Amino acid sequence: MTPLSDHSRALLPGRGPLLSAADPHDGAARRRLERAWTRGVLVRLSPRVYISVSDWAALRPWDRAVVSAVALSIARPATVFTGLTAARLHGLGPAVEPPALELRAPSPGHHGCGPLT
Q: What's the rounded Cα separation, in Å, for the pair 52 and 16?
């Protein structure tokens, strides 16, 4: 059984652990995460990155944006965040829930912003 990576070190204290397969090629670990997501135990924040439902529910709306951005940066390390998203990642900006994550994508097919779900 392969352990799951704990990406909580990439988050500020109290923001909850993000889970992903330690080895992205470990199909068994990925399937365990997907089964937990299907059962409603985990929330999928981005491809291959999850958080427990209880940790997600405990977050304030504006902190969910920060956690979602960190999850996206784990799934797509080349992501460059802009605007309010970048400000929140640096600890700046108002304590409001942004309508979407703002980023500048390195590839032509990924641009603009995406809604927070």
A: 8
Question: What single letter denotes the amino acid at residue 80?
Answer: V
| d(C-alpha 27, C-alpha 41), whole Å | 19
Residue bearing the bigger pLDDT, 99 or 65: 65
DSSP state of 65: H
Q: Is 80 helix (H, G, I), strand (E, B) or coil?
A: strand
Predicted TM-score (pTM) of this structure:
0.67
What pLDDT band is residue 9 in, cutting at 50, 70 and 90?
A: very low
Q: How many domains does the chain have?
A: 1
Range of the domain at 37: 4-115
Strand ranges for 1-117 from DSSP E: 4-6, 19-21, 42-46, 49-52, 80-81, 100-104, 113-115
